[in-house]
């Protein structure tokens, strides 16, 4: 039984403190920064952060919030940005925990999994 969550799905492990779970497909998000909305996609998630990718205009580095279809609204702070990507740090709120849970479930095999 193979899982999509594993070493092949971890990025930049050496320079990051938390494991990053790369989603099998990027999921759409709407980010709000400085009162303006931007369309982007969720690329990866860790405990306390996420990497978002944008096409076209890049949001300014600031306090932000983004909306995910399953998790809801998550507020955070831009920690870095480069070209078309942005790293967001967020507190472990209920919405953030729903997002992390959603991403972890993406890596489970499609068949039923039971605890031993």
Overview of the structural elements:
The chain is mainly beta. Helix content is 11%, strand content 46%. It contains one helix and six strands. The chain has one helix at 94-106, and strands at 21-33, 36-46, 49-54, 63-68, 72-82, 85-90. A six-stranded antiparallel β-barrel has the order 1-2-3-6-5-4. Strand 4 and strand 5 form a beta hairpin. The longest helix has 13 residues, at 94-106. The protein is globular, with a radius of gyration of 14 Å.
List its salient traits:
11% helix; mainly beta; disordered C terminus; 116 residues
**Strand element count:** 6
Q: Which stretches of 5+ consecutive residues score pLDDT under 50?
A: 1-15, 108-116
* Bulk shape: globular
Read across the widest sheet, the strand sequence of neighbours is: 1-2-3-6-5-4
Number of helices: 1
The value of Rg in angstroms is 14 Å
Tell me about the biggest sheet?
6 strands, antiparallel, barrel
Element-level helix/strand string:
EEEEEEH
End-to-end Cα distance, whole Å, is 14 Å
Would you tell me the structural class of the helices and strands? Answer: mainly beta
Instruction: Give the % helix.
Output: 10-25%
Q: Could you tell me the strand content as a percent range?
A: over 45%
Mean pLDDT rating: 78
């Amino acid at each position: 039984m193979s899982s999509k969550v594993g070493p092949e799905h971890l990025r930049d492990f050496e320079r990051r403190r938390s494991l990053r779970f790369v989603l099998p497909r990027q999921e759409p998000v709407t980010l709000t920064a400085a009162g303006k909305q931007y369309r982007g996609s969720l690329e990866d998630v860790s405990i306390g952060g996420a990497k978002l990718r944008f096409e076209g205009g890049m949001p300014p580095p600031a306090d932000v919030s983004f909306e995910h279809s399953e998790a809801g609204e998550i507020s955070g702070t831009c920690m870095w940005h480069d070209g078309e990507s942005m790293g967001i740090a967020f507190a472990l709120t209920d919405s953030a925990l729903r997002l992390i849970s959603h991403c972890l479930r993406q890596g489970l095999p499609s068949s039923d999994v039971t605890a031993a």
